[in-house]
Predict the structure.
Amino acid sequence: MATGGQGAAASSAAAQPVHKYNFENVSKALLAGGLAGGISRTAVAPLERLKILMQVQGNDRVYRNTWQGLLHMARTEGIKGMMKGNGANCLRIVPNSAVKFLTYEHFSREIMDYRAKFDGPGEMTPLLRLAAGAGAGIIAMSATYPLDMVRGRLTVQEGKGGQYRGIWHAASVIMREEGFRALYKGWLPSVIGVVPYVGLNFAVYETLKATVLEYYGLKDERELSVWSRLACGAAAGTTGQTVAYPFDVARRRLQVSGWSGAAALHATANGSTAVAYTGMMDCFAKTVREEGVSALFKGLVPNCMKVVLPYIP
């Protein structure tokens, strides 16, 4: 997404030739970002898995709250079970970051060149940085979506004898039994959810940062303390994810739509059934009709904890 740091970098580059990133520098940045992202995701993997399990479960809730859910996972599947799906999540960090980084830089260069040619100074405004960030986020998410789909299935399957033995086995089974298009189940709500998430994240971060600068009488954002930046980032991330959260619930439910491996999570008085949805709107309609509006926010608490924890030094 287009963060404040990316915006500042793009803005400062407007008055001079756009910096050309060589392969070595980009590789180092992606490697460092991939390692840092892998470590942070692994640290909150149990919360991430719990969030997804809560998102796809039906009315008879096995996972009732964060603490009970973590204890249930630990008791029934052990530490290894709490980390299910983390491998696929970590695997997609580098390609996702690479596509997002390079796409954002390309969009920024094109926009600045266009403005320099037709509209005077080739500067990136906040709105243009937001658009570039949203576009880069959508393209990166789309490019690595099959990994997210596989990760969703691996995360949801319970017990020690699951249908899928690993990332590549899951991908091959899904394509063989459901077709290649199944790897993109839930793609539409993911794309739509990027817009409010990126927009609110950016807007809240910039607003909070400006408020803190004014409150303390500071003139430059570089004067902000680390704690202030972390607090603004955590608040912005939580706000953006909360508003876009129903789309994330729809994504996860569509990823396991009709899959027998998720049937146990939809246990009812009539037995376990694999709930199937025809599309995003059908998913929203059935979820609200059968479980209420609150079902669109299942797993929100562990999700917010997962967002905030990386900001705590």
In short: Residues 44-92+144-311 form a domain with the Mitochondrial carrier fold fold (CATH 1.50.40.10). The two ends are 22 Å apart (CA to CA).
